[in-house]
């Protein structure tokens, strides 16, 4: 603490600060100031200094990237971390990189997003009853956060889900890393996570109930729309739409027809 305020460079900055936030907007603002993980801070800022040739004219965001979407979302989507030249450049999660291209196109195809492409954080994109977030808010070298970095960042995800709790009905979890990061967060928050803990898989579904058994949230696993998964057809646009549509269905979102001409 410095002058009664948490120090952004301190290892416990997320743990101290996240529970103090009372709105999603306040949480997002606090996330963007975090400098708790030295390796990630150095990497995100080095990427912003060196840049990629195609983005030479950009002023990179080069900070932690908050979640995106309304604070009363019924469906959450959890990925891995910002891309070095995607969210780390644009300042919005899954924006400006191939993974985001696939995700937002799929959300648009099933009428959960206002447009099919996400180029920058002021492009007018809106999500309908959906919020996208990540367990690690800084771009990691090689897209591989350490377990320490994941655990340091965990309070942000825990508080975000707590703030969404009144409306949240389903979570689509993109990738094994996000699945493994999410389950302890839910357990610590009092949700009754099955034992042994359920394994990740594309299309896997798990229902978790609160301590009183009165409310439940559906977890739906899906492969991450990484460039590699999409190029090898491990994940196709149709497969991605299917898990997102299932998430919308169990979240109780209004049924909407798929838009014409969806990507295969």
From TrEMBL:
Query: Which species is this record about?
Result: Streptomyces brasiliensis
The residue ranges crossing the membrane are none
Query: What protein name applies here?
Result: Type-5 uracil-DNA glycosylase
Q: Which GO terms describe its biological process?
A: base-excision repair
InterPro entries noted in UniProt: UDG_Type-4/5 (IPR051536), UdgB-like (IPR044147), Uracil-DNA_glycosylase-like (IPR005122), Uracil-DNA_glycosylase-like_sf (IPR036895)
PANTHER family, from UniProt? TYPE-5 URACIL-DNA GLYCOSYLASE
Query: What is the similarity comment for this entry?
Result: Belongs to the uracil-DNA glycosylase (UDG) superfamily. Type 5 (UDGb) family.
Instruction: Please give the Gene Ontology molecular function terms for this protein.
Output: 4 iron, 4 sulfur cluster binding; DNA-deoxyinosine glycosylase activity; metal ion binding; uracil DNA N-glycosylase activity
Supply the alphabetized keyword list: 4Fe-4S, DNA damage, DNA repair, Hydrolase, Iron, Iron-sulfur, Metal-binding
Record domain Uracil-DNA glycosylase-like: where: 66-244
One Pfam short name: UDG
